[in-house]
Amino acid sequence: MLTGLTLTEARAGLAARKFSARELAQAHLDAIGRLNTALNAYITVLPEADVLASADAADARYAAGTAGIMDGLPIGVKDLFCTKGVRTTAASKMLAEFVPPYESTVTANLLNAGAVFLGKTNLDEFAMGSANINSAFGPATNPWKRKGDEATALVPGGSSGGSSAAVAAGMALAATGTDTGGSIRQPAAYCGIVGLKPTYGRCSRWGTIAFASSLDQAGPMTRSVADAGLMLEAMAGFDAKDSTSSNRPVPAFHKAVGKSVKGLRVGIPAEYRAPGLPAEIVAMWEQGIAWLKAAGCEVVDVSLPHTRYGLTTYYIIAPAECSSNLARYDGIRFGLRKDAPSLDGVYEATRAAGFGQEVRNRILMGTYVLSAGYYDAYYLKAQKVRTLIKRDFENAFENVDVLLTPTAPSAAFAQGENMDDPVQMYLNDIFTVPASMAGVPALSVPVGLNDAGLPLGLQVIGKHFDEETVLSIGGALEAAAGFTHTPSVHAGAGA
Amino acid sequence: MSLDLATTRRIAKLARIGLEENELEATRQKLNGILGWIDQLAEVDVTGVPPMVGTETETLRQREDKVTDGNCRDALLACAPETSGPFYTVPKVVE
């Protein structure tokens, strides 16, 4: 089943000429053709002729012995990465017709490594959301269903919900995501796949449509931990065009998977045992701790005292940066334009028509916390609390190598749930936001199913630029969990 | 702190998002709900704590003082909703 492979398996199969990149690409195009109406995982599917031409070029490189590390591997690209000549919407009416004249650094790196792009995946508008319900192109749907309840559509998580749904359903071998407060890790957990948010600065932000620049970070969404390492190798690297890009060397990340974790110290943060945390989440967390102990890790209790302020701090800083970044959508230089008699009228009409409700609210919130008289009370205060949150992690990492937590406080919920109260929706990110605030790398690994048959994920958080230890621990969890379940909606199902 | 309608209207003006009068009250309530929640930050003591700017993992670099992003006027103009020759167009702003 070509659509059920990992990147690593597909790469080996291509290198051994067991199948061609063209066959692999065709199998995925067929799967997208069958499933995309139901899942809406892709906003744009590339023309078949273009996809097959890329695959043929990859086959030629295999024949010539010049294949790159992602050569011939068909993947989805979150529709937040600018792709030259291919419509890039950010799931917004504002950019519904935007065709970038340039390629983002991350996607250029993937193309240079030989990857074959299948299309642009769905997301929450401008990456703002936790359920992929804020898309101007309609929600993406989770391929998993509650046991005995095929009728209820569940959210795939967000904001990278199209990417997670596509990878889980066999509509791509892997996909790119971006993570500002959990937008790779939470959808990965909801869809039973692996998601890695690297250290801030690992992947260039150039050409990725900006949401909150001090938090945004691209990363891989894959079916195995080794795949996440492999794909990160292709995506990462110094880029002079991003002033926050790190010029540290990019290690061979995939080699970290399978390394012994014996003697590594794993911290369990007391504050993540939030009151009201469902018993199934606690049980899974305890299971993860037991697995790592059995693998030879030393488990240590740690404290991150400012954890409970992570989300509130995030919901000041992210909207503030969003209001500044999204000021560029003015109806003049690119994107949607609504005409009006005055220049201010053009701005107001364009932005009212182009932005959805959640994006508008975040811009307004950000405008408020940055406005005269409120800047010190909100924005400056939040930046100071952010220092305290980062120090919590630095203090913890003096004693431990990684932290282990649940990825999300629940399994995937139904479309329509958590809709009325924005704060309730924001709480989905309670365990993922603190690592984003600190800029440290974090990985979600699927480790089991709950009673309703839905996947649950555990999160491994590491030190700045120590993705390798995170991947080693993630690999140990993956090996112990042996998670091989597939969702009910899948390219291989009923075929 | 809680928002009144006048402040909501002012923020919408600052953000250049044209809200209809009938949208203002619902927007005010949504924002107030979030503000009530983030007000819990008031209880954190930040005396002597410096603000965190970015994630402070890299220091800013300087680059050579030369044009690196020029000569793509036509490609950029092609993205604009409306142009006139080599120019973006806007409604008349000077009477």
TrEMBL record, chain B:
The domain of life for this entry's organism is Bacteria
Q: Which reaction does it catalyse?
A: L-aspartyl-tRNA(Asn) + L-glutamine + ATP + H2O = L-asparaginyl-tRNA(Asn) + L-glutamate + ADP + phosphate + 2 H(+); L-glutamyl-tRNA(Gln) + L-glutamine + ATP + H2O = L-glutaminyl-tRNA(Gln) + L-glutamate + ADP + phosphate + H(+)
Q: EC number(s) for this protein? A: 6.3.5.-
InterPro entries in the record: Asp/Glu-ADT_sf_sub_c (IPR036113), GatC (IPR003837)
- Please provide, alphabetically and separated by semicolons, the GO molecular function terms listed in this UniProt record: asparaginyl-tRNA synthase (glutamine-hydrolyzing) activity; ATP binding; glutaminyl-tRNA synthase (glutamine-hydrolyzing) activity; transferase activity
Q: Among the record's GO biological process terms, what is one?
A: translation
Keywords, sorted A to Z: ATP-binding, Ligase, Nucleotide-binding, Protein biosynthesis, Transferase
User: What top-tier enzyme class does this entry carry?
Assistant: ligase
Q: Name one Pfam family in it.
A: GatC
**Its family?**
Belongs to the GatC family.
Q: Briefly, what is this protein's role?
A: Allows the formation of correctly charged Asn-tRNA(Asn) or Gln-tRNA(Gln) through the transamidation of misacylated Asp-tRNA(Asn) or Glu-tRNA(Gln) in organisms which lack either or both of asparaginyl-tRNA or glutaminyl-tRNA synthetases. The reaction takes place in the presence of glutamine and ATP through an activated phospho-Asp-tRNA(Asn) or phospho-Glu-tRNA(Gln).
Matching NCBIfam families, A to Z? Answer: gatC
Subunit note: Heterotrimer of A, B and C subunits.
PANTHER family under this entry?
GLUTAMYL-TRNA(GLN) AMIDOTRANSFERASE SUBUNIT C, MITOCHONDRIAL
What this protein is called in its record is Aspartyl/glutamyl-tRNA(Asn/Gln) amidotransferase subunit C
Look up and give the organism this protein is from. Acetobacter fabarum
